[in-house]
Amino acid sequence: SSEMTQDPAVSEALGQTVRITCQGDCLRRYYANWDQQKPGQAPVVVIYDKNNRPSGIPDRFSGSSSGNTASLTFTGAQAEDDADYYCNFRDSSGNHVIFGGGTKLTVL
Amino acid sequence: QITLKESGPTLVKPSQTLTLTCTFSGFSLNNSGVGVGWIRQPPGKALEWLALIYWNDNKRYSPFLRSRLTITKDTSKNQVVLTMTNMDPVDTATYYCAHTTAAYCDGDCFWNWFDPWGQGTLVTVSS
Predict the structure, then answer these.
(1) In chain B, whose CA is at the least distance from the CA of A47?
(2) Contact at CB, B46 and A94, closer than 8 angstroms
(3) Considering chain A, what is the average pLDDT of its residues?
(4) B109, A96: Cβ pair inside 8 Å?
(5) What does the alpha-carbon distance between residue B89 and residue A31 come to, in Å, rounded to a whole number?
(6) Burial B98-123 (b: 16+ CB within 10 A, else e)
(7) Are the Cβ atoms of A99 and B109 closer than 8 angstroms?
(8) How many Å apart are CA A63 and CA A21, to the nearest integer?
(9) Which helix (H) or strand (E) holds A22?
(10) To probe the interface with A, which of B38, B59, B111 has the most A CB atoms within 10 Å?
C-alpha cells in the first residue's frame, strides 16, 4: 500500500524539542526524506535518506525511522523553523515518489 | 552550483495542453545516475509528484496522472520538458522541477531525493 499519514499541524514552544512523524507501509522498506517549505518559497531538503543533513542544515534537525514511521526531530526548535514540512519516499515499487500531506510546524 | 528554472504559460484554458520547460545548470543529464523530476502544489495544498526522467531516458509517471503526462529531455539544451494534456481548473498549481539522482538502476531506477528545487511557476487554468 502507498497510503501514508502525516499530522497536519504541530506546535511547540521556542527552544523545546519537537517531533513530527510520517506513517506509511512503504516506510518499512524505504527511508524517508524531509523537505522544508516556507511561505512563498520552494521546498528545501533538510533530511535525506533517513538521517542525513545537507550542508548548511543545522544539526538540531535529525531524522529517524522505526517500523512504518519516519520522524523529523528538532532539538531546540527555533523561530526560523516555523514552516511546512513534507516527508517523501519511494512507493512500494521503488520507482515512484510519494509526498506526505505536510505538517505545519508553529514555534511559539 | 546546481540551479533549475521553470518556464511556460501562466494561464491556460480548460482542455488545452500545458507545456513546461525546466532549464538547468550545474549538472548534465548525460551523467550516470542523474535525473530531473516535476512536482506541483495547488494553492494552499500539499506537494504532488508528477514525473521523473533519468540520464538513461528511464521515465516514471504518477499513476494518477500517467495518461495525461509526457516527460522528455534535451541534453544539448540542458532542458527537461513536461506536457500535461486536457488541463482542468483543478490543475491550477505551482509547478516545480528539481534535480535528483537514482540510487541504482536495474531496468527500473530507484529514486533518491530532490535537491535542489527550482523556484516554481504558477499555472492557472481558467477560461
Answers:
(1) B113
(2) no
(3) 93
(4) no
(5) 34
(6) bbbbbeebeeebebbbbbbbbebbeb
(7) no
(8) 10
(9) strand A18-24
(10) B111
Note the pLDDT tens digit of each residue in B60-104.
999 999 999 999 999 999 999 999 999 999 999 999 999 999 988
Does B110 contact A102 at a Cβ distance shorter than 8 Å? no
C-alpha cell at B23: 532549464
- For residue B6, the one-letter residue type is E
Residue listed under C-alpha cell 506537494: B47
Query: Could you report the per-residue pLDDT of B33-62, keeping only the tens digit for each?
Result: 999 999 999 999 999 999 999 999 999 999
Query: How many CB contacts within 8 angstroms connect chain A with chain B?
Result: 66
CA atoms within 13 A on the CB side of B31: 11
Can the peptide bond before residue B116 be classed as cis, meaning omega within 30 degrees of 0? yes
- A interface test, pick of B59, B61, B114 with most A CB neighbours within 10 Å: B114
pLDDT of A1 strictly over 60: no
8 A C-beta contact, residue B124 and residue B92? yes
Contacts of residue A48, Cβ cutoff 8 Å, sequence gap at least 6: A33, A34, A54, B112, B113, B115
B111 — contact with chain A (CB < 8 Å)? yes
> Could you give the CA distance from residue B3 to residue B9 in angstroms, rounded to a whole number?
20
